Amino acid sequence: MEPSDNHSIAKSWIAMHLAGSGTKVYEENFWAFEKLDDLIHKDPHRALEIIKAIIKADSSELILSNLGAGQIEDLMCYNDAAVIDDIQAEAEAEANLLFKKAMSSTWLDSSDTKHLERFYKIAGIQPPLDE
Fold first, then answer.
1. What is the pTM of this model?
2. SS3 call for 125
3. Residues 16, 117: Cα–Cα separation, whole Å
4. Domain extents for the chain?
5. Boundaries of each DUF6869 domain copy (predicted)?
6. C-alpha torsion angle, residues 87, 89, 92, 93 (rounded to 10)
7. Judging by beta carbons within 10 Å of its beta carbon (0-12, 13-18, 19+), is residue 106 exposed, middle or buried?
8. 90-100 tens-digit pLDDT
9. Residues 9-39: tens digit of each pLDDT
10. Which residues contact 89 (CB under 8 A, 6 or more apart)?
11. SS3 content of the chain, % helix, strand, coil (to 5)
12. Percent of the chain at pLDDT above 70?
């Protein structure tokens, strides 16, 4: 059984992405990807806490772009109304702008979220997809 605490999920999620697809480390840690995906649907606030823990543990371009194009995008597609205020608070509160950098890898359109304009305003960028 895999650990379910936020730190263990974040650590294994990072290890999986750093190892790369097809490696033993990737396969051994894929459970963390599945757990975070499940939380995005069932407990978006906890999922956001894990995303923040991942950014705190590893702010490399690889990790930030994977979070933006993956988990942050999924949060906005499935639970935008539940997390948009928390996303804004995190993006505005942090001094080093890492969360905003991860947000810049997120590609959303109006069919994904009612909060499209607000999300990209928080991120400080223009939406990458033309409507």
1. 0.91
2. coil
3. 32
4. 6-123
5. 24-118
6. -120
7. buried
8. 998 876 689 99
9. 999 999 999 999 999 999 999 999 999 999 9
10. none
11. 70, 0, 30
12. 94
